[in-house]
Amino acid sequence: MLKTLLLRLGLWPMMAGVTLLSIVASVLMASGLTYDVFGGTMGLSAWVITLATPAIIAPVMSFFTFRLVLQLETARMELQHAVHHDPLTELHNRRFFMQALQNEIDHARSGGSAFAVALLDVDNFKSINDRHGHLGGDAVLRQIAQACRAHTHGSDVFARIGGEEFAMLMRHSGLEEARECAERLLHTLRHLEIALHDGVLAVSASIGLTVYQPETAHLNILLRLADQALYAAKREGKDRVAVQLAASPAPSAESPT
Which secondary structure element, helix H or strand E, spans residue 241, and what is its range? Predict the structure, then answer.
């Protein structure tokens, strides 16, 4: 309740209101007790102490209480961010992506719109690490993540799910729309120049793509199809998009343009 009021009213109005209520309540309680102690008669000094003490203490207590509330809320938000995000790229992580994908599957089963799933893997990433070191590899992943994030629609989810592998959930997307989005991503990466300490590096990636179908309404099936398509893209020469649908005889790869 306190958090809701803080979000609705703001810190300082809320703090002022609680402080005023604390002062009024403290003055009434203190006045009653003090009046009773003095047998119904109170001198000026007793009234001054009775009224001044709550007015001094209440604002201080309110300040420290609200500061603690804000610190706890900040810590909660930081923890929630850490649980759902990859620390290197600041993208969503595997945990968040899997939950988002499961939610989208459940939505589609109940009559929601179709969607697509893509797995993106950086080509020849081991050689990048071997040549430029892990710091260079980290820089590559960060810049790839930044470039790909710019192509993500507001409702889509782009995540790093491990190593040099990324995943994308494209909501409200059919096969052709998802393929076009994947091709735009690869086009962007082909023209990406990553500045490292020992020179400028060009990179590429391969993408495996699948779309939701009633017969693939399971998280593991969708990921397996996308992974099969990714393997086909690698096998066919990398730097391309491959598609695998349910009951397809073999993944189909698109040559780079």
Answer: strand 241-243
CA dihedral sign of residues 164, 143, 116, 161: positive
* Sheet strands side by side (includes 157-162): 157-162, 165-171, 115-122, 205-211, 241-243, 252-254
Cα–Cα dist 2/242, whole Å: 52
Residue showing tokens 């961010």 = 81
HEC sequence for 104-135: HHHHHHCCCCCEEEEEEEECCHHHHHHHHHHH
Residue 140 carries which side chain, given as an amino acid letter?
A: V
Split the chain (257 residues) into runs of 10 and give each run's mean pLDDT. Answer: 56 64 66 61 63 67 69 72 83 95 93 92 93 91 91 88 95 93 94 85 95 88 96 96 80 54
d(CA 167, CA 152): 11
Quote the CA–CA distance of 20 and 17 in Å, as a whole number: 5
Return the pLDDT at 9.
55
Kindly state the helix (H) or strand (E) to which residue 159 belongs, with its residue range.
strand 157-162
Which residue of the set 104, 164, 165, 177 is catalytic? 164
Active site (annotated) includes residue 78:
no
